[in-house]
Amino acid sequence: MDTEEKINYLDEPLGTYIKRVSSKTPIPGGGSVVACVASLSSALISMVLNYTLGKEKYASFEKELQGIMTENEGILKKLSTCIEKDSQIYEEIRRYTSKKDYISSEKLLKESAELHLYICRAMIKVVDFAEVLSEKGNKGLISDTGIASSLAMSAFLSAKMNVLINLKFIKEDKDFVKQSLKEIEGMERDIMRKGKDVCERVIKQLEGNNG
Fold first, then answer.
1. 100 backbone dihedrals φ, ψ, rounded to 5°
2. N or C: the chain end with fewer CB closer than 10 Å?
3. How far apart are CA 172 and CA 107, in angstroms?
4. Closest of 82, 34, 71, 78 to residue 49, by C-alpha
5. Which CATH number fits domain 17-209: 1.20.120.680, 2.40.10.340, 1.10.10.60, 3.40.50.10490?
6. Residues 27-44: pLDDT tens digits?
7. Sites in the chain below the pLDDT cut of 70
8. E strand or H helix at 69, and its extent?
């Protein structure tokens, strides 16, 4: 397979990407899918903001929400690049491992772990944004706000798995392994608490609307 030619997922139809994931090929795999889900959670935040900003009803929150939009757009852009970057790193790891170049392979394992640590950090921000939007965002899109939070929690846990599998094979830089594990543990407590609160708040609002 010509990986240089194949790794252009963002330029392909969604159906093609899904077909690639389901096929008997190593890429795109779980790591790329995690980045895709993370990107979608961030994209939903932007969508809710786009339906909120400029509306008189939410004018008092305009400055705060515009700041969130600017920050989230930067996050979304970087997350989107991770969809392809994960597969590129994986292919490089396979290439160096097959050559028994374990020093280069370990550097790439760290790069992969760092990519997924970034996703974890980004999902903390997405849940923070969703928390604000659950109170100050367009109420017509409250379910989208909740879904952004739910997807962010899922993407966080999935990225954590990818961090752990990479750390398992990093033998030289024990400080990096230790620091990464500590960071993940702290972030997980934060995102699960906040994310659950956001989802429960959204569900409560939706149940109230249906009452």
1. 60, 30
2. C
3. 10
4. 71
5. 1.20.120.680
6. 999 999 999 999 999 999
7. 1-6, 209-211
8. helix 62-98
